[in-house]
Amino acid sequence: MLADNYSIGKDGKELLLMKKAVWLYLLLLIFEGALRKWVLPFLSAPLLVVRDPLAIYLMYKLWVQGMVPYSRLLTGMLLIGFAGIITAVVLGHGNLFVALFGARIMLIHFPMIFVVAQVLDREDVIAMGRWIAWIALPMTMLIVFQFYSPQSALVNRGVGGVEGAGFSGAMGYFRPSGTFSFTNGIHMFYGLLASYLLFFWFSPGQINRFLLYGATGALLIAVPFSISRSLAFQVMITFVFALFAVARRPENLLRVILGLIVIMAVGGALFSLDFFQTSVDVFMVRFKTASAIEGGVSGTVSDRYFGKMFSALATASDQPFFGYGLGMGTNAGSALLTGSRKFLIAEEEWGRMIGELGAFLGITAISIRLAISAKMAVFSYRGLRFGNYLPWMLLGLALTSVTKGQWAQPTSLGFSVMIGGMLIAALKDSQNMEDKQLMKEG
């Protein structure tokens, strides 16, 4: 199965060091923005790639110990990355530094999916979920504070210490960014929290019940205070995955009903509070305004999640055969090439990849991302059949982040590779569960 290639023997001391490095990667992912905004704003530019050395270190440790997993998908993406450097410098924008910055996505961070899967096991992934639940409590307090504070306040400082980190929301309120550099970090963090919480509701013995209740309340508060439609859609997708799990294994129905009762009780209590009702009003105005522009909820979903992907493929032949060059579609690349941060190619991920690499290499890279997502889906479903709910609950977020996540943005890239690696690591026990089920039935 998908995770079998990533479970070979390892030296205990070296493995512990690598586990700590993966934990540090995750913590830097969550708190990198805080460093860039409040602690070390004068180092905001180099901190943009603060996780790159950790990824290189982990790849090196696996290499020297002969533990690099073989994968045609990994090999293919690495080849595209190296080819992209050459085509960018020779036939594209011609800037080696921009090409290297763009290539690091495929040469350093994409392999982290396999590195995380190699280093972690299912218990590590569950432990990360508990810590994310703990972090969600102060994170939610922070975004509430940011929501009600003026953009000139310290909590709303942006990258480099500039005033105003919030993005336009509605009714004069701005979308908070929490500890992240940009608001998309809030969407990814709470989307991951939602996946974990629904898993913990299926497996209550894996987490302190008071922490489960508190983190569930934090998620309910965060959705309207984030003023993020992406987060709302992601929570709904995750909930649909949970309903499918219940339909597949009805013995979990009672736990889901209990969870819904708790959610309704907490939600009812929150709605009686003015501070919460204000955020709901702002969120609804934002939702209605944006949906009206995009043609309603169905228009939003079709355009945001499917339309722009298909349009990128349909217009691939309009791009130069080898593209405009790796890195040109990133904000950092545009700053190096033009002196200002803007989208030189496309804001959406598939359009960026095809614009940078050209039709052949770009569509091949997209196909690799689709292929690994498809494998995750197949084996997550197989694990669900034998009681391994964790990868299935992570799958809802993995399918959106791995297939079409905006990897040109470092936070989105970091969450995507961590979620992909964590999902594969969580699959490692599925074979044991299957064997036990077969023995029981036999």
Would you write up a description of this structure?
- By secondary structure, the protein is mostly helical.
- It has one domain.
- Helix content is 73%, strand content 2%.
- The chain is built from 17 helices and 2 strands.
- α1 (12-39) runs antiparallel to α3 and α5 packs antiparallel against α13 (331-338).
- The chain is globular.
- Residues 3-9 and 435-442 have low confidence and may be disordered.
Indicate the topology.
Blueprint: H1 12-39, H2 44-47, H3 52-64, H4 72-90, H5 96-119, H6 122-148, E1 167-170, E2 173-175, H7 184-202, H8 209-226, H9 229-248, H10 253-271, H11 274-294, H12 296-314, H13 331-338, H14 349-385, H15 389-404, H16 410-426, H17 430-441
Antiparallel strand pairs: 1-2
Distance between the termini: 22 Å
**Number of separate strands:** 2
Helix coverage percent:
over 70%
Shape: globular
- Can you list the strand order of the major beta sheet? 1-2
Query: What is the gyration radius calculated from CA atoms?
Result: 22 Å
Estimated structural class: mainly alpha
List segments where confidence is low: pLDDT < 50 over at least 5 consecutive residues. Answer: 3-9, 435-442
Major sheet attributes:
2 strands, antiparallel
How many structural domains are formed by the residues? 1
Number of distinct helices = 17
Which strand-content bin applies to the residues?
under 5%
Let me know the average pLDDT.
86
Query: Order of helices and strands, N to C?
Result: HHHHHHEEHHHHHHHHHHH
